[in-house]
């Protein structure tokens, strides 16, 4: 493995841990249900749409949905199709490109 790959993997892991550690949880409970219903409600109520998506080794899909105002929600959908809102927050910023200044 290249050192650049390991750097990116470590950075990604660090960012995920940081997000989960600092996110505002839904009153200490996880809310689960139908993925399409969640996404439709988030779009209607908060103008949030899927901005980022990734696959976890367990087969779950992680989505970050964001609004133009910077609100965001992390939705995890398991292989059986059950989606859970695991974190929400504000001040989301997206960085494009691969410059050293992005780290």
Question: How does this structure look, described?
Answer:
By secondary structure, the chain is α+β, with helices and mostly antiparallel strands. The chain has a domain at 25-92. Helices cover 31% and strands 30% of the residues. It contains two helices and five strands. It has a five-stranded antiparallel beta sheet, with helices on one face. A hairpin with a 5-residue loop joins β3 (61-66) and β4. The two termini are 20 Å apart. The model has no long low-confidence stretch (mean pLDDT 77).
Write the layout of secondary structure elements.
Blueprint: H1 3-22, E1 31-34, H2 35-46, E2 49-55, E3 61-66, E4 72-77, E5 82-89
Antiparallel strand pairs: 1-5, 2-3, 3-4, 4-5
Brief description of this entry?
The chain is α+β, with helices and mostly antiparallel strands and 103 residues long. The chain is 31% helix and 30% strand.
Number of helices: 2
Give the low-confidence spans: none
Q: Based on the structure, what is the oligomeric state of the protein chains? A: single chain
State the separation between the terminal residues, measured CA to CA.
Answer: 20 Å
Helix share, percent: 25-40%
How many DSSP-defined strands? 5
The best one-word shape is globular
Taking the sheet with the most strands, its summary is: 5 strands, antiparallel
Secondary-structure element series: HEHEEEE
Side-by-side strand order of the widest sheet? 1-5-4-3-2
Instruction: Report the sheet-strand fraction.
Output: 25-35%
What is the gyration radius calculated from CA atoms?
A: 15 Å
Judged by helices, strands and strand pairing, the structural class is: alpha+beta
Mean pLDDT: 77
């Amino acid at each position: 493995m290249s050192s650049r790959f390991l750097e990116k993997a470590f950075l990604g892991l660090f960012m995920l841990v940081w997000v989960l550690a600092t996110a505002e949880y839904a009153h200490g409970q996880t809310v689960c249900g139908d993925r399409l219903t969640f996404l439709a409600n988030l779009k209607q109520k908060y103008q949030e749409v899927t901005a980022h998506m990734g696959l976890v080794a367990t087969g779950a899909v992680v989505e970050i949905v964001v609004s133009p105002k910077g609100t965001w929600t992390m939705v995890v959908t398991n292989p059986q199709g059950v989606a859970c809102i695991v974190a929400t927050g504000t001040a989301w910023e997206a960085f494009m490109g691969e410059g050293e200044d992005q780290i």
